[in-house]
């Protein structure tokens, strides 16, 4: 009988469903990482919320683990590349708590507008300070959404009901979707300059980390009020404190913090600052939704092999599985690669299957490409919803099949239309099972896309490889594999290195400073 550990507080419905489906379940919450490491080896499944950190160390100790189920949306507490490397499926419940979280953002907006927590404390202290608490109306004010996905969309809808004007900054929001949502798509600078209230609804990524930095906070309208119910790390907390102290920022409400649990913070006690302990998803309705969904999805996988809402694995039937699985792994990696290397709105993705690949059912391959691609923009994508999400974002998806073989017996090519023109990557299967990148933006390479990688574009010149090797050696970074390609001798060259750890900002800065380097980026698969 499969055995699951529920390691964060979850509605009792989850345990009930596991038992009804023939899955043994233990509920042990509040363990330290060391304690979790000591027991995780017994379990086939791990059901979590945001408290449990599923790190590489935990996964290494999880010798029987097959599935991690997140009762909620954000999976930034799960090392997905490490889980994928170990063949552990990671699932979430992408929509179960969206309404509840949007409502929390609206509640905090009202609380800021009328200083409700301070007025309550003062009144209950017997002060009756009627003249101290002068609020502002929400009607006709401008709400700036940073991130216009599921939750941002619900917040916009509720804000329209409050007669607010909504502007949104989201580089992946298409003009059509903006019209549908009734929001004005603007640049970040425009939003900062115009919004009376700013609310954040993005995942925490390299692009969104510190999106409200000291510099950006200084560009906000005097008297702005800021709400964060998304992720700690999107706002520079020190700069926020300074902005509140100076009076430039009239109020801020945080549900999420850089360090959680946030037992202390320089923000605590600051006038016009409101905080809640990551309560965005904490309503009875949302917790019942996510508990039922996660238990059903995990039980399905453990008992029948069915896959729903997986972030790192395609859904597929038993007959197609053996042939399609390696192609989907290849497609997902190619999609992720173009996603990580492209920025801004992508109006079209073309997936071209050539040779043996053209004889297969294209749908799972296309879904795998889209899922890998969109995974770089949102936590809520999986094989099932990737085509839908792509459509919603106005991405035209083209499938092309050529049964004739080219240079390779089988090939999958992914091309994206960008502002700079069409860019494509291509990969094949070695020995019918091992995915390999064979072409990157017109340059022939041969690389395994796995774990953490360093991508460098440079001018082909003698001595470059030695210099980069020395730099990595001095930084204590171990190189796993080393792949090179170039357009022509002395022309543009590309370097893909697999490294044991995430590429740090310092290392990237060092690489970018090397002579001849045009681009350098850290990638993760
Ligand atoms: N406080 C809580 O308890 C709570 C509850 C649920 C969700 N969340 C968090 O809220 C966030 C949003 O959830 P969602 O369901 O709306 O996700 P979503 O994926 O539907 O939407 C995220 C949006 O952010 C946009 N985005 C990505 N990069 C961006 C960038 N650089 N700049 C601006 N926008 C960018 C995406 O295009 C997308 O539209 C997630 O981080 C989630 O974990 C928090
Ligand atoms: O991403 C989410 O779903 C929220 O952050 C909810 O987190 P929680 O399950 O720990 O409340």
From TrEMBL:
Please describe what this protein does. Catalyzes the reversible oxidation of 3-phospho-D-glycerate to 3-phosphonooxypyruvate, the first step of the phosphorylated L-serine biosynthesis pathway. Also catalyzes the reversible oxidation of 2-hydroxyglutarate to 2-oxoglutarate.
Q: Which PROSITE patterns match?
A: D_2_HYDROXYACID_DH_2, D_2_HYDROXYACID_DH_3
Which species? Sphingomonas lycopersici
The biological pathway it contributes to is: Amino-acid biosynthesis; L-serine biosynthesis; L-serine from 3-phospho-D-glycerate: step 1/3
Q: Which UniProt keywords apply?
A: Amino-acid biosynthesis, NAD, Oxidoreductase, Serine biosynthesis
Q: Name the InterPro entries on file.
A: ACT-like_dom_sf, ACT_dom, ASB_dom_sf, D-isomer_2_OHA_DH_cat_dom, D-isomer_DH_CS, D-isomer_DH_NAD-bd, NAD(P)-bd_dom_sf, PGDH
Molecular function via GO: NAD binding; phosphoglycerate dehydrogenase activity
Recorded name of the encoding gene: serA
| Catalyses which reaction(s) | (R)-2-hydroxyglutarate + NAD(+) = 2-oxoglutarate + NADH + H(+); (2R)-3-phosphoglycerate + NAD(+) = 3-phosphooxypyruvate + NADH + H(+)
Query: Can you say what this protein is called?
Result: D-3-phosphoglycerate dehydrogenase
**Family the UniProt entry places it in:** Belongs to the D-isomer specific 2-hydroxyacid dehydrogenase family.
The ACT domain sits at 452-514
Domain spans labelled D-isomer specific 2-hydroxyacid dehydrogenase NAD-binding: 106-280
Pfam families given in the database record: 2-Hacid_dh, 2-Hacid_dh_C, ACT, PGDH_inter
């Amino acid at each position: 009988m499969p055995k699951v550990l529920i390691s964060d507080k979850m509605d009792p419905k989850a345990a009930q469903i596991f038992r009804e489906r023939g899955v043994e379940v233990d509920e042990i919450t509040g363990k330290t990482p060391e304690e979790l490491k000591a027991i995780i080896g017994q379990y086939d499944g791990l059901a979590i919320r945001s408290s449990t950190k599923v790190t590489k160390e935990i996964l290494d100790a999880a010798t029987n683990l097959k599935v991690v189920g997140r009762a909620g949306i954000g999976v930034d507490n799960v090392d997905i590349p490490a889980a994928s490397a170990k063949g552990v499926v990671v699932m979430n419940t992408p929509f179960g708590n969206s309404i509840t979280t949007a409502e929390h953002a609206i509640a905090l907006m009202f609380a800021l507008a009328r200083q409700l927590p301070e007025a309550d404390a003062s009144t209950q202290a017997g002060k009756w300070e009627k003249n101290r608490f002068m609020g502002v109306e929400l009607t006709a004010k401008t709400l700036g959404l940073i991130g216009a996905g599921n939750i941002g969309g619900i917040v916009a809808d509720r804000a329209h009901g409050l007669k607010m004007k909504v502007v949104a900054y989201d580089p992946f929001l298409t003009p059509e979707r903006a019209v549908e949502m009734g929001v004005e798509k603007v640049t970040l600078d425009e939003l900062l300059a115009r919004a009376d209230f700013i609310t954040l609804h993005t995942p925490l990524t390299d692009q969104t980390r510190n999106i409200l930095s000291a510099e950006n906070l200084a560009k906000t309208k005097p008297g702005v009020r800021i709400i964060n119910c998304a992720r700690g790390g999107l706002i520079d907390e020190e700069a926020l404190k300074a902005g509140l102290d100076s009076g430039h920022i009239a109020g801020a409400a945080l549900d999420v913090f850089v360090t959680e649990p946030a037992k202390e913070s320089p923000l605590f006690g600051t006038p016009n600052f409101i905080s809640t302990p990551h309560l965005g998803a904490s309503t009875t309705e949302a917790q019942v939704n996510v508990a039922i969904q996660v238990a059903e999805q995990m039980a399905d996988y453990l008992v029948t092999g069915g896959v729903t809402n997986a972030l790192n694995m395609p859904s597929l039937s038993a007959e197609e599985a053996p042939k399609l699985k390696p192609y989907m792994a290849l497609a997902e990696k190619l999609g992720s690669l173009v996603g990580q290397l492209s920025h801004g709105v992508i109006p079209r993705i073309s997936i071209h299957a050539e040779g043996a690949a053209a004889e297969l059912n294209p749908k799972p391959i296309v879904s795998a490409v889209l899922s890998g691609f969109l995974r770089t923009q949102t936590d809520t994508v999986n094989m099932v919803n990737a085509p839908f999400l792509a459509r919603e974002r106005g991405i035209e998806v083209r499938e092309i099949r050529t049964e004739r073989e080219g240079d390779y017996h089988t090939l999958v090519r992914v091309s994206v239309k960008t502002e700079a023109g069409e860019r494509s990557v291509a990969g094949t299967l070695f020995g019918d099972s091992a995915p390999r990148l064979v072409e990157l933006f017109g340059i022939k390479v041969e690389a395994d896309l796995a774990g953490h990688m360093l991508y460098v574009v440079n001018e082909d010149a003698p001595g470059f490889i030695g210099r980069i090797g020395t730099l990595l050696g001095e930084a204590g970074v171990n190189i796993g594999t080393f792949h090179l390609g170039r357009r022509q001798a002395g022309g543009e060259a590309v370097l893909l290195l697999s490294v044991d750890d995430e590429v740090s900002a310092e290392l990237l800065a060092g690489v970018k400073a090397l002579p001849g380097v045009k681009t350098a980026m850290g990638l993760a698969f």
